[in-house]
C-alpha cells in the first residue's frame, strides 16, 4: 500500500514538473530575460494612470465667502452704492470711468456687486445674519473690517501665487508622460496608439550599427529590440523568452521596428505598472546604469547592455544580443558628451515630476490655508456680533436731566434760599 501511494505521489509530481521542464528547455537561450524585465518596468510607466497631478484651479468657495464677509462689514454708505438684487455684469460702471487700470476696476466692481446682492438674501450669506449699522461704524467694526480685508488679500495672493508659480509645474508634470517619457520610450515618430507603429527606433544596415546609442538604442524600445529580437544575419534564439521575438529584424529595405516590438510590448504588459513618481523613475534609471557592462574589443572597451557576442561589439551572433552605449562613456569620449538619448530624457522627466510633486503638495497646503483664512474671518465676524456698543452722546446734544437736578437749579436761582429747601 505504501509503495503504491509513493508511486502515485511521484507520478503526480512528475506531471506537475514536466511543463516547467519543458519551459526551461524552451528558455535555454533566454539570456536577457532580466534585462528586458527592467526595460518593461520603464516602458510600463507609459501605461499607468496619471491622475494624481490635478492642475485645476484652487477652490473658489472660500474666497467668495470672504468677499461676502468683507462686503458685509463695509460701512452702510458703501453698501448702498450697489443694487439690492443680482444684476448682469457691467462693462463700464461709473465707479471705473476714470480708473487707470480699468479692466481690473470693472472686474472688482462686478465682484462687489455680487457680494452686496448676497447681503440682501441672508440664505446665501455665510453667517446668515448681518451686523447693525451701529456696529459697522464703531471702532470695533472698523477693526474687524480691516482684519477681514487683510484675510481676503491673503487669499487673493495665494490664488495669484498658485496660478503663476505652482500650477504650471503641476501641468508640466502631468504632461511629461505623453511628452518626454513617450518620446524616450518610442521615439518622437512613434505612435503608441497604432499597433505595429509604436516603436520608431532608427534601424541601420546591420545589427552592429543599429544597436548603438545614437541609433536604435537611443530609445527604450530600440534597446529592447537589440537585446531580444531575432534577425536574418545569424541570431535566431529567443533571447528574452518565447513570445517576445515573433518577428525578425529587417535592417535594410523596409525596416520594421514597430512590428518586431509589438510582441515585446504585449509581454511587458503582464508586469505590474506601478505608479509614475520621480523616485520610482530615478530608481529604474539607476538600476539600468548598474547593469551596464564593460567588455574588451579590438578597438577598445565597449560599454553594453544585454549579452554581448564573442567580439563584444553587439553584432549579430546566435543566442546573443546587446545594445552598445559606449558613446555615453565619459572616459571613452574625446570631448564633452552632448548627445542626449532616452536615459537623459528620463532623468529630465524625473526632475519635472519631482517639481510637480512639490508643487502639488504646495497646492494642498494652499487649499488648507484658504479654509483657515475663512474660519478666522468667521471668528472675527462672530466676535463683532457679540461686541457691546456703548451709547455715545454727541457734544451738541443737551445732557439728560433728572428731577433732583431740576429742583437744585431752581433753588440756586431762588432767593432767599431757605424758602426753597
TrEMBL record:
Superkingdom of this protein's organism: Eukaryota
Stretches the record annotates as Disordered: 386-421
GO CC annotation, single: plasma membrane
Keywords tagged on the record: Cell membrane, Glycoprotein, GPI-anchor, Lipoprotein, Membrane, Signal
Role: VSG forms a coat on the surface of the parasite. The trypanosome evades the immune response of the host by expressing a series of antigenically distinct VSGs from an estimated 1000 VSG genes.
Regions of compositional bias (Basic residues) in chain numbering: 412-421
InterPro entries, per database record: Trypano_VSG_B_N_dom
Domain Trypanosome variant surface glycoprotein B-type N-terminal: 21-371
Membrane disposition: Lipid-anchor; GPI-anchor
Segments of skewed composition (Polar residues): 393-405
Subcellular location: Cell membrane
Protein name according to UniProt: Variant surface glycoprotein 1125.4958
Primary location group: membrane
Amino acid at each position: 500500500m505504501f509503495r503504491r501511494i509513493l508511486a502515485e505521489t511521484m507520478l503526480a509530481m512528475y506531471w506537475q514538473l514536466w511543463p516547467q521542464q519543458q519551459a526551461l528547455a524552451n528558455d535555454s537561450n533566454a539570456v536577457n530575460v532580466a534585462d528586458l524585465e527592467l526595460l518593461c518596468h520603464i516602458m510600463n510607466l507609459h501605461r499607468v494612470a496619471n491622475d494624481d497631478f490635478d492642475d485645476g484651479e484652487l477652490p473658489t468657495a472660500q474666497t467668495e465667502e470672504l468677499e461676502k464677509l468683507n462686503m458685509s462689514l463695509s460701512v452702510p454708505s458703501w453698501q448702498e452704492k450697489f443694487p439690492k438684487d443680482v444684476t448682469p455684469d457691467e462693462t463700464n460702471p461709473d465707479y471705473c470711468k476714470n480708473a487707470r487700470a480699468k479692466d481690473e476696476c470693472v472686474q472688482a466692481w462686478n465682484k462687489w456687486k455680487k457680494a452686496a446682492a448676497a447681503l440682501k438674501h441672508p440664505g446665501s450669506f455665510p453667517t446668515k445674519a448681518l451686523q447693525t449699522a451701529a456696529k459697522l461704524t464703531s471702532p470695533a467694526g472698523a477693526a474687524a473690517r480691516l482684519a477681514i480685508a487683510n484675510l481676503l488679500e491673503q487669499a487673493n495672493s495665494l490664488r495669484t501665487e498658485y496660478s503663476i508659480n505652482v500650477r504650471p509645474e503641476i501641468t508640466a508634470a502631468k504632461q511629461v508622460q505623453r511628452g518626454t517619457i513617450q518620446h524616450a520610450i518610442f521615439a518622437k515618430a512613434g505612435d503608441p496608439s497604432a499597433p505595429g507603429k509604436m516603436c520608431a527606433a532608427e534601424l541601420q544596415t546591420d545589427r552592429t550599427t543599429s544597436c548603438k546609442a545614437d541609433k536604435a538604442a537611443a530609445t527604450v524600445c530600440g534597446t529592447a529590440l537589440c537585446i531580444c529580437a531575432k534577425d536574418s544575419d545569424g541570431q535566431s534564439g529567443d533571447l528574452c523568452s518565447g513570445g517576445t521575438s515573433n518577428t525578425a529584424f529587417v535592417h535594410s529595405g523596409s525596416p520594421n521596428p514597430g512590428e518586431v516590438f509589438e510582441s515585446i510590448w504585449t509581454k511587458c504588459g503582464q508586469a505590474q505598472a506601478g505608479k509614475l513618481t520621480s523616485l520610482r523613475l530615478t530608481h529604474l534609471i539607476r538600476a539600468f546604469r548598474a547593469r551596464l557592462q564593460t567588455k574588451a574589443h579590438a578597438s577598445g572597451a565597449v560599454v553594453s547592455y544585454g549579452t554581448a557576442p564573442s567580439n563584444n561589439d553587439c553584432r549579430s551572433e546566435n543566442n546573443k544580443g546587446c545594445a552598445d552605449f559606449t558613446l555615453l562613456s565619459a572616459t571613452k569620449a574625446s570631448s564633452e558628451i552632448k548627445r542626449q538619448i532616452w536615459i537623459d530624457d528620463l532623468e529630465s522627466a524625473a526632475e519635472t515630476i519631482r517639481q510637480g510633486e512639490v508643487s502639488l503638495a504646495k497646492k494642498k497646503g494652499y487649499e488648507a490655508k484658504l479654509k483657515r483664512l475663512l474660519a478666522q474671518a468667521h471668528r472675527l465676524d462672530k466676535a463683532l456680533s457679540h461686541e457691546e456698543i456703548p451709547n455715545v452722546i454727541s457734544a451738541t446734544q443737551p445732557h439728560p436731566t433728572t428731577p433732583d437736578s431740576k429742583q437744585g437749579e431752581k433753588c440756586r436761582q431762588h432767593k432767599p434760599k431757605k424758602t426753597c429747601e
